[in-house]
Amino acid sequence: MSTKQFDAEQLSDLVKDNTFGLKEIPPEQSLIEYPTDFPIKVMAQAHPELIDVLTELVLEHDPEFKKETIEVRPSSKGNYTGLTFIVRATSREQLDTIYRTLHGHELVKVVL
């Protein structure tokens, strides 16, 4: 199995444009049927305003999102918080935008 190698400049470019080397999937090849409820998992640095801030970001792209549906899991030492947002996904573009928006926040470490 071969692994693609990137130099530091290539990695920087991938992170800047938020593609991370992923290729666009044509809508006809998507395994997701829209609209659908879709879970987005976030791992972020713990902060008192984390939930409110990330909720506002999600609401920009899913105006019907309900804050009370967020699942919250603090880390054992309390340094990080795991969150699950169930969004109403209407398109691949919308999901990609939500992922990029969340990933771009300074407290967010991982978005799955």
Automatic annotation (TrEMBL):
Top-rank lineage group of the source organism: Bacteria
Residues that span the membrane, as ranges: none
Family: Belongs to the UPF0250 family.
Protein name: UPF0250 protein F9B74_04410
